[in-house]
Amino acid sequence: MRVLPALATLASLLLPTALAFQVEGVLVPSASLPDPLTIGPATRVLVDGGRQSTWLRQDGRFEIFVPVGTWLMEIESKDYIFPKYQIQVSADAEGRESVTTMTLVPGQQWDSTNAKIVKHPLEISPLVKMDFFTPRESFNILSMFASPYMLMMGVTVLMMFVMPKLQAGLDPEGKQELEAETSKMHKQMNSLQTPDFAASLANWMSPAPANPPKSQASSKRK
């Protein structure tokens, strides 16, 4: 009685192999992967999102059994992006399987008529290598002086040395007008530190309103 369950288990293991086609492939050198042997062992071949899967061998080859039907095959790698493949396995009246393999470029529809048929066994190469490292920006002294805070500091230091010399050659009325303009400039520069930078800059660059014309006398002396 115990023989029947064992035979049923063995049949369930052998049945997918009997009704499947062995798809083979190998990594080939490319610009993004000159030496396929350096890709590392953590690379898998997935069919139908993982329904069937196998690991890439050290020599860059793989074999995977794909059942009759149309399936999507992907190469899962942490360092490279590979093209996807459409695998079509069919069987004739005598039970002999055949396979048709096509490449699917990123963004291409599953049923696209522009899919390119490739030969079997597959010769696979990655599309691009993923780079997660962002190089650190080098020091640039020009960018430091282009900072708004450095510009405000430079204007302040310049005013400290220039203002006394300007005031020395002015009359009292000119000094009063210059002090008013300086006070206005300081207020505008302090407002640059607020979030409304654009409005403050526009107010600073806008010309001062002209003085209103004096009204003429409505009557002349006789």
TrEMBL record:
The keyword Signal applies. It is found in: Membrane. Coiled coil: none annotated. It is a single-pass membrane protein. The chain crosses the membrane at residues 139-162. InterPro entries: Beta_sandwich_EMC7, EMC7. Residues 173-184 have a biased composition (Basic and acidic residues). The keyword Transmembrane applies. This is ER membrane protein complex subunit 7 beta-sandwich domain-containing protein.
